[in-house]
Amino acid sequence: MTTIERIQEWYGRQCNGDWEHAYGVKIDTLDNPGWWVKIQLTGTDLEGKTFEAIQNGLRSDGHPSERDWICCSVKDNVFDAAGDPNKLEPILRLFLDWKDKNANQASEATSEPAPGADSSAHQG
Fold this sequence. Notes:
It is built from three helices and five strands, in the order H-H-E-E-E-E-E-H. By secondary structure, the chain is of the alpha+beta class.
Protein backbone atom coordinates (compact mmCIF):
# COMPACT_ATOMS: atom_id res chain seq x y z
CA MET A 1 0.00 0.00 0.00
CA THR A 2 1.37 3.46 -0.88
CA THR A 3 1.85 6.23 1.66
CA ILE A 4 -1.10 8.15 0.20
CA GLU A 5 -3.32 5.07 0.38
CA ARG A 6 -2.27 4.53 4.00
CA ILE A 7 -3.06 8.12 5.06
CA GLN A 8 -6.39 7.96 3.19
CA GLU A 9 -7.26 4.73 4.99
CA TRP A 10 -6.36 6.20 8.40
CA TYR A 11 -8.35 9.36 7.69
CA GLY A 12 -11.34 7.37 6.46
CA ARG A 13 -11.38 5.28 9.66
CA GLN A 14 -11.53 8.47 11.76
CA CYS A 15 -14.56 9.84 9.91
CA ASN A 16 -17.59 8.94 11.99
CA GLY A 17 -20.02 11.73 11.15
CA ASP A 18 -18.61 14.01 13.85
CA TRP A 19 -14.79 13.83 13.91
CA GLU A 20 -14.31 15.14 10.37
CA HIS A 21 -16.37 18.25 11.14
CA ALA A 22 -14.02 19.39 13.91
CA TYR A 23 -10.71 17.70 13.08
CA GLY A 24 -8.73 16.45 10.11
CA VAL A 25 -5.51 16.37 8.11
CA LYS A 26 -4.04 19.53 6.59
CA ILE A 27 -1.19 19.62 4.08
CA ASP A 28 0.13 23.04 3.13
CA THR A 29 3.21 24.60 1.58
CA LEU A 30 5.77 26.91 3.20
CA ASP A 31 7.76 29.76 1.73
CA ASN A 32 11.05 28.32 3.10
CA PRO A 33 10.23 26.40 0.75
CA GLY A 34 8.73 23.22 2.12
CA TRP A 35 5.71 21.32 3.38
CA TRP A 36 3.64 21.71 6.55
CA VAL A 37 1.45 18.83 7.76
CA LYS A 38 -0.96 19.07 10.70
CA ILE A 39 -2.96 16.04 11.79
CA GLN A 40 -5.55 16.37 14.55
CA LEU A 41 -5.34 13.47 17.01
CA THR A 42 -8.26 14.32 19.29
CA GLY A 43 -10.82 11.53 19.22
CA THR A 44 -8.41 9.04 17.61
CA ASP A 45 -6.46 6.10 19.03
CA LEU A 46 -3.40 8.40 19.00
CA GLU A 47 -4.89 10.97 21.35
CA GLY A 48 -2.51 11.48 24.27
CA LYS A 49 0.22 9.22 22.85
CA THR A 50 3.86 10.23 23.19
CA PHE A 51 5.84 11.18 20.10
CA GLU A 52 9.58 11.79 20.26
CA ALA A 53 10.15 15.13 18.53
CA ILE A 54 12.44 15.23 15.49
CA GLN A 55 14.47 18.28 14.48
CA ASN A 56 17.11 17.97 11.78
CA GLY A 57 18.71 20.79 9.80
CA LEU A 58 17.27 23.65 11.88
CA ARG A 59 18.97 26.67 13.45
CA SER A 60 18.43 27.55 17.10
CA ASP A 61 15.63 29.94 16.05
CA GLY A 62 13.75 27.05 14.44
CA HIS A 63 14.33 28.13 10.84
CA PRO A 64 16.01 25.82 8.31
CA SER A 65 19.78 26.06 8.24
CA GLU A 66 20.15 24.06 5.05
CA ARG A 67 18.17 22.62 2.14
CA ASP A 68 17.69 19.24 3.85
CA TRP A 69 15.52 19.77 6.95
CA ILE A 70 12.59 18.28 8.85
CA CYS A 71 10.87 18.79 12.19
CA CYS A 72 8.00 16.82 13.68
CA SER A 73 6.31 16.98 17.07
CA VAL A 74 3.02 16.36 18.84
CA LYS A 75 1.60 19.11 21.01
CA ASP A 76 -1.96 19.58 22.22
CA ASN A 77 -3.04 16.44 20.35
CA VAL A 78 -1.79 17.71 16.99
CA PHE A 79 0.91 16.01 14.94
CA ASP A 80 2.72 19.06 13.56
CA ALA A 81 5.46 18.52 10.97
CA ALA A 82 7.34 20.53 8.40
CA GLY A 83 10.15 19.79 6.02
CA ASP A 84 11.92 20.78 2.84
CA PRO A 85 10.26 20.23 -0.57
CA ASN A 86 11.39 16.57 -0.61
CA LYS A 87 9.93 15.71 2.80
CA LEU A 88 6.18 15.38 2.25
CA GLU A 89 6.27 11.60 1.90
CA PRO A 90 8.82 11.12 4.72
CA ILE A 91 6.62 13.25 7.03
CA LEU A 92 3.54 11.18 6.22
CA ARG A 93 5.53 7.95 6.66
CA LEU A 94 6.80 9.13 10.07
CA PHE A 95 3.20 9.71 11.15
CA LEU A 96 1.98 6.38 9.77
CA ASP A 97 4.89 4.41 11.26
CA TRP A 98 4.21 6.04 14.65
CA LYS A 99 0.52 5.16 14.27
CA ASP A 100 1.40 1.55 13.45
CA LYS A 101 3.83 1.31 16.38
CA ASN A 102 1.11 2.50 18.77
CA ALA A 103 -1.45 0.11 17.26
CA ASN A 104 0.98 -2.81 17.64
CA GLN A 105 1.68 -1.90 21.26
CA ALA A 106 -2.05 -1.72 21.98
CA SER A 107 -2.75 -5.10 20.38
CA GLU A 108 0.17 -6.71 22.23
CA ALA A 109 -1.11 -5.31 25.51
CA THR A 110 -4.60 -6.71 24.96
CA SER A 111 -3.37 -10.14 23.86
CA GLU A 112 -1.10 -10.75 26.86
CA PRO A 113 -2.62 -12.82 29.69
CA ALA A 114 -3.19 -11.00 32.95
CA PRO A 115 -0.39 -11.42 35.49
CA GLY A 116 -0.96 -14.56 37.52
CA ALA A 117 -3.43 -16.00 35.02
CA ASP A 118 -3.08 -19.74 34.59
CA SER A 119 -4.04 -20.71 31.05
CA SER A 120 -3.96 -24.41 31.95
CA ALA A 121 -6.86 -23.93 34.38
CA HIS A 122 -9.22 -23.58 31.43
CA GLN A 123 -8.14 -26.76 29.68
CA GLY A 124 -10.50 -29.66 30.03
